[in-house]
Amino acid sequence: MDEKRRAKRLEEEDELTITIISEGKKLSKVKIIYHLSKDISMSGARIQANMFLPIDSLLKIDITLKNPHQMITAFGKVKWIKSLFADESYEAGLEFINTSSDTIQQLADYISKKQKFKSFNPG
Questions:
Q1: CA–CA distance from 78 to each of 49, 88, 114, 115 (Å)?
Q2: For residue 76, what pLDDT is reported?
Q3: Residue 119 DSSP one-character state
Q4: Model pLDDT for residues 81-113, shown as the tens digit of each residue
């Protein structure tokens, strides 16, 4: 598979809450808890979900980052999705869109600090 990522990814599982949005209207009043399955970058994330998210779905994503504990809100679009287990668990790739430059910078700073820490503390 060709690498299409534009930014370095941080391998980390973080809790997040996703609200499905379409054309500015909420499709679901229920917020669904997910976990980042493995990685996040300043341009997107790979998540694990318990429901199918159609490609091009627009999402509001509240991410709880670890150490230091902080919450950021981003908006994303589903770029790909695949079934992991009998159509009960899914993995999806999100691209962040319409997210403030301050939020993207906050995420970039967080990823940079975590990657520097890992390079000094491998294993």
A1: 12, 18, 25, 26
A2: 93
A3: H
A4: 999 888 788 899 999 999 999 999 999 999 888
Strand ranges (E), the chain: 10-11, 15-22, 25-26, 32-40, 44-49, 58-65, 70-85, 89-96
What is the spatial distance between Cα 11 and Cα 120, in angstroms, rounded to a whole number?
A: 16
Half-sphere exposure of 102 (CA within 13 A, CB side): 2
Residue bearing tokens 């009998």: 86
Parse the chain into domains and list their residue ranges.
Answer: 10-116
Select the CATH number that applies to the domain covering 10-116 from these four: 2.40.10.220, 1.20.1250.20, 2.60.40.2470, 3.40.50.300.
2.40.10.220
Nearest residue to 81 (alpha-carbon basis) of 69, 89, 71: 89
Longest dimension (CA), the chain: 45
Say what the pLDDT of residue 119 is: 66
Q: Distance from CA of residue 112 to its chain's centroid?
A: 16
